[in-house]
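Researcher: Good morning. I'm working through a list of sequences from a screen, and I'd like to move beyond sequence-only analysis. For each chain I'm collecting a predicted structure so we can compare shapes side by side. This is the next one on the list. No need for commentary yet; just the structure.
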Amino acid sequence: MIGRKIGYGLFVIILSVCLFFFVMSTALHAVMYDSHFINNLYVKYDASKNTGISMEEITKVSDNLFRYLRFETDDPNTLVKDEKGGQMLFLNERELSHMKDVKTLFLIKRYVQIITGVILLLSLFGIYWYDKKQGYGRRRRNSVLLFAVLGSFVLLFVLFLLSRIDFSKAFIAFHKLLFDNDLWQLSPARDRLINMLPEGYFFDILFRTILLAVVILVILLVIGIIKQKGKRRYQRRSGTSYKWIGIN
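Model: Good morning. Structure tokens for this chain:
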């Protein structure tokens, strides 16, 4: 009995972590495609004034950068017009090298999304097969899903707290953890990228991603609760009863 409960708990933890990363990567992908939101951030942080190019050129640079991170183009650089009407490449060599590192992270994000999605699907099929074999019906499936969603909420809340307590420190720690060089340490006096994408820009993207992830998890939680209540009503009508958590 104790061994089964421990195994059940570990299984729920693994599903919670997988669901957290899958939902976060999916939400981030959706934010990256929200050009209206992204362009509003450039207005909010006065990217045109800080970089010395027009908002139209900023939008062109941004579109190409996101196309690059979505693997739709191989060149992150963009030819833009400067204040004097001349043309120049937006990114310097240091920024180009950093963008290659960033693209590698987005490739990892894609793999994480695929792997966690596959694990979630296989787990659901595994639970379905085991419940059918043991004659549990839907009770274990529903309880596992509900606990996994609640566990993901906890992880999401921890991430939100860390970002709110001191985003600057968390932002620096994130870069030190994921990059093995100092190319991410850009200078406002030398590099246009940091003037276009200040720290606040990334905080707003993170907040938007977390908000969208919460919406996805709430939808899953509501579906789970509705299914659980429906199952309980069926139990009362049929005169059957069993533990909600599904462990006997």
